Amino acid sequence: MPDVLVIGGGNAALCAALMAREAGASVQLLEASPREWRGGNSQHVRNLRCMHDAPQDVLVEAYTEEEFWQDLLKVTGGRTDEALARLVIRASATCRPWMRRHGVHFQPSLSGALHTARTNAFFMGGGKALVNAYYRSAERLGVQVRYDTPVDRLELQDGRFVAAWSGGQRFAARACVLACGGFESNRDWLREAWGTNARGEHPADNFLIRGTRFNTGTLLRFMMAAGADTIGDPTQAHMVAIDARAPLYDGGICTRIDCVSLGVVLNREAERFYDEGEDFWPKRYAIWGRLVAQQPGQVAWSVIDAKAVGRFMPPVFPGVRADSLPALARGLGLDEARFMHTLQAYNAACRPGSFDHTRLDDCRTEGLSPAKTHWARPIDTPPFFGYALRPGVTFTYLGLKVDHTAAVRFGGRPSPNLFVAGEMMAGNVLGQGYTAGVGMSIGTAFGRIAGTQAAAACGHAHPHLEQDHVAA
């Protein structure tokens, strides 16, 4: 029987397994997917948001704790636990040397990833390389890894973990870390959460899943039924506007449409519905999935002209191209008269300014609702392009409530040997909204805490923890 059982196979699970093993605990990791799809949503990530008080190798200038906190506070609208958020922020400053020891390499911010050179450390080779590096290190250290092993229930005794079950197989351990994601790939649960809207639609029927098909929320549902304390709104998620032609699962980051702030976004009625220039893309891109989810048919179109080309990360699939706006409307299948009315009104409302997509410039609209507050330039230079958008769910925020120890709680009482990390508890920090790279910050911080605490529950102390890694 191993000391620590880790359920899940992504970043948070691997951080937990590695930390527990470094502390001297024997560790077994159960991953639901086959080996070739291992890593959960982490196989699709690109970067980690990092606090730093001075330039650090791939990170320029400084990104202080307070600035990180204010960025998080802004996107969450205050729906966050400040103590846990600051724990994550501080941990983000100290984790990279440890990550490097386990084979993770970093590179400078990509040229098309605007505004992240100061705030985000990019993984060389992306999330797949990160996941593979962690698995290599885990296997070298003696972590037992089992693939194709989805856990469907736990044995619990007065809040204490006893064993996990995968079908008819029982896996006992002295402590356990749950790091098996949210419920974003469970269509029935999404339908239940989102219900039916005023138009009689089931919005969730039109959602695409950016990440893994294996995050079905089975253990989250089990834990809720078992009386574990929960946190979060089931309709809140990291939800991005992605290419409507993306696959149902595992489209990843390459399906994102990044030109939203450079043009206008129209719904099925060919009407604008939100300020496309509200803030920089890394801080605001994750609001657009939810906005599109609230539109008729859960579909929208991002429209740009030639002036925007080369200023954003190009999508994988080419957009609809036309040499005139009426032709573009026809190509997108939108009502031509309504489309032209919307575009003409927008163009007429644009006020001259000094366009600069690297700052919050003074190019705005006047007398238009909704306004476009920055980067507003007339869409008047052919060729014109349009991209159909759908909501792309990355991960859901409903999860298990924790404190700084990552312990699962039952009626406010922490379990002595059951811990949780990653997307399954991210709602403690993310009540709504998102900013680029913070999911990896949460998963890395709480994965390492959970692994350390699980090892300690078995009598193993970690030999070289960073001073601020686990709160006193």
Automatic annotation (TrEMBL):
Transmembrane segments: none
Nuclease among keywords: no
Pfam families to which the protein is assigned, alphabetical: FAD_binding_2 (PF00890)
Positions of the FAD-dependent oxidoreductase 2 FAD-binding domain: 3-430
Alphabetic keyword roster: FAD, Flavoprotein, Oxidoreductase
InterPro entries, sorted: CobZ, FAD-dep_OxRdtase_2_FAD-bd, FAD-oxidoreductase_2, FAD/NAD-bd_sf, Succ_DH/fumarate_Rdtase_cat_sf
KW Membrane (keyword) present: no
Cofactor(s) this protein cannot do without: FAD
Annotated PANTHER family: FAD-DEPENDENT OXIDOREDUCTASE 2 FAD BINDING DOMAIN-CONTAINING PROTEIN, FUMARATE REDUCTASE
Protein name, as recorded: FAD-dependent tricarballylate dehydrogenase TcuA
